[in-house]
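Input/output pair, single chain:
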Amino acid sequence: MAGLLPDGKVRRRFTQDCPSLPLAMFGELRPEVAGWPDAGCGYLALSDGYAAELGEARSQGWATAELPSHHLAMVTDPDAVSDSIRSLVRQVLSSP
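Output:
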């Protein structure tokens, strides 16, 4: 965690706000839902660790973007993440 959030104060605040979740939850698979998604979608990849998910989003025709960073970029670089999300929203809204 210190490598992603080197500022101790930011790291403590972030970890204090994280809920305690059972480890088994992370092994759960998302159920398939007929008709989902029923609206335009976008996917923002923050690192190479999400290459499979990015590929899946592209194969589904979603708007996609990459912001070379890390899993917690929304904490360390919120402006860049929010700018990227706004750009994706514009892409989704302008799609036929």
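The chain is about 40% helix and 10% strand. Strands lie at 42-45, 63-66.
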